[in-house]
Amino acid sequence: MSQSNQFILLLMNLTTWWRLRRWRTGMAVFLSAIMLAWGMLPAVALARTETPVPQSESIQPYLDRVIEKVSEFSLDNGMKFIVLERHQAPVVSFVTYADVGGVDEPDGKTGVAHFLEHLAFKGTTRIGTTDYQAESQLLDRLDQLFEQIQAAKAAGNQAEVARLEAEFAKVDAEALEYVTQNELGQIVEQAGGVGLNAATSADATVYFYSFPSNKLELWMSLESERFLDPVFREFYKEKDVILEERRLRTDNSPIGQMIEAFLDEAFQVHPYKRPVIGYNEDIRNLTRADVQEFFETYYPPNNLTIAVVGDVDASEVKQLAETYFGRFKGREKPPAVTAVEPPQKQTREVTLELASQPWYLEGYHRPAIDHPDHVVYDIIGRLLSDGRTSRLYKSLVEEKQVALTAQGFSGFPGDRYPNLVLLYALTAPGHTVEEVATALRAEIERLRTEPVSAQELERVKTQARAEVLRSLDSNMGMARNLVEYEVKTGDWRNLFEELEAIAAVTPKDIQRVAQVTFQPENRTIGRILPKANEGQSPES
Fold first, then answer.
1. I want to staple 93 with a disulfide (CB 3.0 to 4.6 A). Which of 16, 149, 232, 476 is the partner?
2. How far is it, in rounded angstroms, from Cα 311 to Cα 211?
3. How far apart, in Å, are the Cα atoms of 10 and each of 67, 331, 413?
4. What are the residues whose beta carbons fall under 8 Å from the beta carbon of 106, sequence distance 6 or more?
5. Do residues 83 and 70 make contact, with C-beta atoms less than 8 angstroms apart?
C-alpha cells in the first residue's frame, strides 16, 4: 500500500467510520472500499434501504415525514432512546452510543476507552464461558500474578520474573479452557444479525449491528446483558492485540508517529492531544481493575443513548427497553471534560526525519460542532479538498505539480470540542515540502482575500447536502447520525437543520471565517522529511 493511502487510512482510523460523510466525496468512496476490504467497516453500514432519499425537489417533504416518525423516550435511570420506524424492509439497525472517548481518560491510563471497547465483546457471566465460577477464580489469580510480575520487574529480580511469568502462562491457559470464543458474535450471526462491530474515537464509543426485525427482543436481551453484567475476560491476551495494533499504526509507521507528534504540538491543554489508542507504557500498565473502574464511571445508563431505526413499533421498543434496560441502576453522570484549549499565539512546528516520503501538514484551530459556523468550516474544507475539482488538487497536483496528493478536512481529531482544520499533502518527486507549503498557503490566501464565485460555492454546497442525504439512506446511517447529533449538539433535529444551514452559507461567510481562522499564529506545521544519507541534506 502506498504511503498516501496509509496516511489517509490512519486518519480515517483516528476519526472513526461514522463520520465518513464529512470526508471529501471521492476520497470517502475510495476509503470506504478499502476499509470494507480490511474488515474495518461493516457491510450493513453501506447498505441502503429499499426507499432511497428522493431527488432535491421533494427533499423537504421527505424530511418532514422522517421527523414526524421519530420518537424519543428516556427510562427512569436516564438512558435515552431515539426510534425511527421504517417499514420498507424487515430489518432494524441499532446503535448504542456511549458518551465517552479518549478525551475522558485519566492521565496515565490512556487507551482505556479503546481497551474497554475490545473487552465488551468478550461476554458476560453467562455468555462466553462454560463455568464462570471456576473461570473467575483464575481471572483473579491472573490479576494477582500480573501485579507480582510488575513488582519483580521494578525490583530487578529477573529470576522471580521468570518464575511468575511461567505460572502466569499456566493459569492463563487454564482460564482459556473455560472460554467459549466469540459466543456473542455466534449468537448474533445465527439469528441473522450482521455488522456486529464497534468504534472508539476521541469523543465517543459506539457499538452497532443490524438484525431481522423479528429479533428485536433478542437484541434487547444481548445488548442489555453485555453492559449490565460484563466480564472482561482474555484481558491480557487482548492487551497484546492492542499493543500490536499500536505498533502497526503508530510505532512502526512514519505517518502514525507524525500524527501523534502533531496533535501533541497542536494541543497544549486539551486531551485531544493524546492518542485514542493510548501511549505504549500506559497500555502495558493497565489492569482489569482500571478497566472496571472506568466502566463503572463512564457507562452509567444516563451516559448511554440508543438509536433504533427500521421495521419496529416504537411502543414495543419502549416496552422492551423498560423491561431489559430498566434493570440498570441510575448513577451519577460522569465528570465532564473541563480542559479548555487556550488561543494559540504563535506558529508551532514539528519536524520528523523518518524512512518515508516527504509529507507536509498544516492545522488550524476551529470551534466545535455546536458552533454556528460549523457548516461554514465544512464548506471551506470541501472548497479546498473535495476531489479532483478542489482547489488544492487542481493547484498543487495538476497545475504546479508539487504534490502527488493534497487533501484536508475539518473536525480533527474529533468535533465535540474545539478542534482542527487539517490540510496535508504528499510531496512530488523533485520538490520540497516548502514548495508545497508555499502553494498551499497561496490557496488559503485566495479564500481570505477573494470571494468564492457563486457557481463554485453552489457546486460544493450541493455536494455537501447530497452527502448528508446519502448518509440517511440506510437504517444504520440514519441511526448513527441521529444519535451523534443528539449527544453532541443536544438535539437530533439539528441533523436536519444542518441541511438548511448548508444552503444558507454565503461567499461572505467563507471569507469571514477564513480571515479569522487562517492566521499564522493559529497554525501548526508538521513535516515528515526522509532520513538523509551521509553527506546529503534531508530535502535532497
1. 476
2. 10
3. 35, 36, 11
4. 112, 294
5. yes
Question: Is the CB of residue 433 less than 8 Å from the CB of residue 34?
Answer: no
Q: Where are the alpha helices (DSSP H) in 331-403?
A: 374-385, 391-392
Q: For the domain 3-43+340-530, what is the CATH superfamily, name and number? A: Metalloenzyme, LuxS/M16 peptidase-like (3.30.830.10)
Instruction: Average the pLDDT over each of 10-19, 166-175, 449-458, 525-534 and give the range with the smallest value.
Output: 10-19
85/536: higher pLDDT: 85
Concatenating the DSSP letter of every residue in 146-215 gives: HHHHHHHHHHT-HHHHHHHHHHHHHHHHHHHTTB-TTHHHHHHHHTT-EEEEEEE-SS-EEEEEEEEGGG
Contact 289, 109 (CB under 8 A): no
104: nearest Cα among 278, 266, 240? 278
Q: Which residue type is seen at 213? A: S
- Write the pLDDT tens digit of every residue in 337-358: 999 999 999 999 999 999 999 9
Q: What does the alpha-carbon distance between residue 114 and residue 110 come to, in Å, rounded to a whole number?
A: 9
Contact 134, 126 (CB under 8 A): no
Instruction: Output the pTM of the full model.
Output: 0.89
Separation CA 501–CA 204 (nearest Å): 25
CA angle 130, 288, 300 (to 5 degrees): 90
Bridge-based pairing of strands 304-310 and 91-98 is antiparallel
What are the backbone angles phi and psi of residue 407, rounded to the nearest 5°? -140, 180
- Give the Cα separation of 17 and 476 in Å (integer): 12
Rounded to 5°, the CA angle 525-529-535 comes to: 140
* Cβ 314 vs Cβ 69: under 8 Å: no
* Cβ-based neighbours of 526, under 8 Å, separated by 6 or more: 258, 261, 262, 265, 349, 350, 351, 359, 360, 361, 362, 363, 424
Write out the H or E segment, with its range, that includes residue 408.
Answer: strand 403-412
Q: Which residue has the cell 535532497?
A: 540
Identify the sign of the CA torsion 529, 532, 536, 540. Answer: negative
The label of the residue with cell 487510512 reads: 9
